[in-house]
Write a structure and sequence with these properties.
The structure is a homodimer. By secondary structure, chain A is of the alpha+beta class. Chain A folds into two domains: 89 residues, Arc Repressor Mutant, subunit A; 58 residues, Ferric-uptake regulator, C-terminal dimerisarion domain (Dna Ligase, domain 1, 2-Layer Sandwich). A three-stranded mixed sheet of chain A has the order 4-3-5. In chain A, a hairpin with a 5-residue loop joins strand 3 and strand 4. In chain A, helix 2 crosses helix 4. The longest helix of chain A has 13 residues. Chain A starts with a helix and ends with a helix. The mean pLDDT of chain A is 94. Strand 5 of chain A pairs antiparallel with strand 5 of chain B, so a sheet runs across the interface. The complex binds manganese (II) ion (MN) (2 copies) and zinc ion (2 copies). The site of one zinc ion has 8 residues of chain B, from helix 6. Chain B binds a DNA duplex through helix 2 and helix 4.
Amino acid sequence: MFSPENRFRDYLKKKGLKFTPERRLILKKVFSLHGHFDADKIYDEMHKKNRKLSRATIYRTFPLLVESNLVKETLRCQKRANYEPVFGYSHHDHLICINCGRVIEFRNDLIEHLQEKVCKKYRFEPLEHRLGIKGYCQKCAGKRQRR
Amino acid sequence: MFSPENRFRDYLKKKGLKFTPERRLILKKVFSLHGHFDADKIYDEMHKKNRKLSRATIYRTFPLLVESNLVKETLRCQKRANYEPVFGYSHHDHLICINCGRVIEFRNDLIEHLQEKVCKKYRFEPLEHRLGIKGYCQKCAGKRQRR
DNA sequence: TTCTAATTGAGAATCAATCGCAATTAGTAG
DNA sequence: CTACTAATTGCGATTGATTCTCAATTAGAA
Ligand SMILES: [Mn+2]
Ligand SMILES: [Mn+2]
Ligand SMILES: [Zn+2]
Ligand SMILES: [Zn+2]
């Protein structure tokens, strides 16, 4: 009963929009990747499995996935917008290696709690937040040292 | 002795680059704004004071300012890259109102400290981080309530 | 089954950012 | 001070991501 597809259907219906084969394919792909993705990733994956579908449709579908709270945009590190699934995953923040691109996900409840306190202090009503720490992962830091 | 201009001069010299009038103007403008800015902001400000200078030069200067640790890129909220001064300002994070665009700066040392602990745990060597909380500022939250 | 508003793909358009190049210039060496 | 040269500039062209336009198609309500 509670699946990304059901939530997406409900959302679309509520908005008077249609659950098309293209939207279903994009949704399936997004949730089968279990990780960060961008428009081109989805485009390539689709075409690899020779299911052609246009970039325009992909770009038009992403905002719907975000609106229905199935995925969210992540911290933009290059120039392309990047997303990750939300449905079925719990909130976390990111450590991003600027050398190899590795992304480490972490969750720290105390940090989360302190953010709430900050918001209260400023009477700010938070909707979402993004915390990204850029630097060198263990492997890449080691390599740098040895140079 | 310690001024943005001196640091910039030193940086440029070390790299064998030149301290041109254009670079000086951009630097001055950046530090006279006391806040966030993007390429167009600088471009417009310059042309308002009818000091013409090309967009290319602005785009070419920003990375130098970042490299010399005078400014840093901030969390990208729209599609343009956005920056803020670092020299002369202490580190802080942001509350961003998605209704009126207001940006509230805050600093929470405990959050900062916890981030370091997270990095240690993953043996991650942090260089910088960005934390942005999006939501409604007091004013805008109030307006929403009353609707 | 019919009907219609929503959707699609293809390519054009947009927008920020980058690039190529000829003319100019900062700043070092003499 | 002058000469030299690599760095810089502005301009326009280009790129790359994203959005838009529009004619043809289709989901899904009636
Ligand atoms: Mn968090
Ligand atoms: Mn911080
Ligand atoms: Zn790494
Ligand atoms: Zn506001």
